[in-house]
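Table S4 entry, Arginine decarboxylase.
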Amino acid sequence: MPALAVDAAATVAHAFTTCDAAARFPAAPLFAPAAVVAAAAAAADKPDVGAAAWSADLSSALYNVDGWGAPYFFVNDDGDIAVRPHGAATLPGQEIDLAKVVARAAGPSAGGGLGLPLPLLVRFPDVLRHRVESLNAAFDYAVRSTGYGGRYQGVYPVKCNQDRYVVEDIVEFGAPFGFGLEAGSKPELLLTMSCLVARGSPDALLVCNGYKDLEYVSLALIARTMGLNTVIVLEQEEELDIVVEASRRLDIRPVVGMRAKLRTKHAGHFGATSGEKGKFGLNAAQILSVVSKLKALGMLDCLQLLHFHIGSQIPTTALLADGVGEAAQIYCELARMGAAMRVIDVGGGLGIDYDGTHSAQTDMSVAYSLEEYAAAVVAAVGRVCDRKGVQHPVICSESGRALVSHHSVLVFEAFSASAPAANIDSATAYLLDELTDDCRNDYRNLMAAAVRGDFETCALYADQLKRRCAEQFKEGVLGLEHLAAVDGLCEIVARGMGVAERPRTYNINLSVFTSLPDMWAIEQQFPIIPIQRLQERPAIDGILSDLTCDSDGKVDQFIGGRHSLPLHELPSHGTRGYYLGMFLGGAYQEALGGLHNLFGGPSVVRVSQSDGPHCFAVTRAAPGPSCADVLRAMQHEPEVMFEVLKQRITDDGATAAALARAFGAMPYLSFGGSEVSLESSGMSSDSEGSAAGAAEDDDDEWEFMRGLTV
Ligand SMILES: *Cc1c(COP(=O)(O)O)cnc(C)c1O
């Protein structure tokens, strides 16, 4: 082989590896504060800066943790993500290290862990309490500081997260404020009724939204006889007839609200329900018609609440004030016409700053705080009512996203990653020398251009070389080894010329469809970052690819306008233990997620701050749905399937046991000994097709299991 080729390749490869392209990632234009980010990016850009020059603070700035995470999430001195369970009121010893929670939840029981398979949803009820209290405090302050004559009495729309413990917590934490619930369907109404009866304040409102039939309305009326403060909100004019009919049949007088269709329009994705063409609510003519019907029936005193909903993620307080002002005018009109108006319900829309920019530039960000939101609502209602001489109403909001988004973190593992292009060795160089003459010409021209630093010519020849080789491969002239060698060469040359390395693909043990449905369905972005090793420089650009056999099952858009995420090299010894967290996903994601490829939900733990330095308590733990559970959801009968398969088993029982284990395990990848027991699958190798129930979490076993983390 000609020495020239080998030398050139070797020289090029050597020259370019010092230019550690993997250390480079683009600065994020949207990240704030800009100066710190620039510093972080600059440090990351320096090819020769070692891990020692990096710090937890630089990671915090790089991922903008303070922007979207404050006051709950931060990077601690160990380089782990930690949680301040009581927000800014958290004392230094009360912080909870998320990596330690994961170690405790997923670790083997022999080491004191709970042996829960990942993915893992970690709920923090303390954060939920802090959200409920902050929302009420914000409105309380706005009311007191402006001399507003009414009070705030919110409801939680359970649509955002119907998990039993989430709803129970909110009702319990909200009871001192008379905080209530909102339902939008019959099962939601059933759960809100029972939860409010069991632990709600007697003052709490139960707002009934959504499309209604006679059954729904009857249930809402029956709730009134149980002492619940139910308001039936008319979303359609026809619903009035149903309410009148049910009320007559049951002889229960209703309290009625009306959902107004506002002209104020919220232009973002979440504003599709607003404006004149919106899906819900009554327009001016319909409102007048309902009023005159109620009057004719002698029921105008039943009309007590006005509701509207501009849409989720209201971007600015200017838009909010505009909508609330319009609604307050309608409220005053209804009072003028003789309705016994008492409550103005401003709906949902209190937004979350997913990208932490406080910019309102995209649907992912809102430009106000809780306090500013409350102040804008109270001021707008007060102003209109004062002008019209109408008594200040009780202000209700249906803030869902704002209450539950922060309370949970989804933790999942990146278990492998695509490898970077290797350097060219002499064997590869030898392969390049075997190319046909025309290919070798391209190759020489490519190298010459590379040495000259002529990037454009380089790219041209690289492209031509690749195309020519592909053609010759199809003709059978070249082998797979030649193709691979040429691809590798072109990649190294591109890297050397300063072309940003293509992001590597990190495979994650998760289903985007099940756990991050909005990411797939509406391209919503949530902050995703490694939860450990943040004192090390994340030197690799990665995108995330999930377990489903679906090309949409990936994450390649990240907050801050990034198309890749700075990540660390996976542990070289084996591939375990690199965990990522998805944050601010406590609203909507759980109930929206499906069973694509039959991947079910994650394991769940509830973690509370507990006394003692750096102590936390795992107060509840449950593995996610097993293979048997997800099969059942599709009408398969795991017990019968097991019996059918058992017919073909020839050995003494080891195979049956393995089969039963497969039914009992979660659908996700399991690396090294899942600890979910056979019993939890509802079948064991000797069960004779017993129709035992789904995996029942044995709560007591986990109750108050303390995790000392020092
Ligand atoms: C979805 C919804 C809410 C909750 O909205 P958020 O933006 O999550 O606060 C409130 N009210 C109604 C009528 C809704 O449809």
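The chain has a mean pLDDT of 86.
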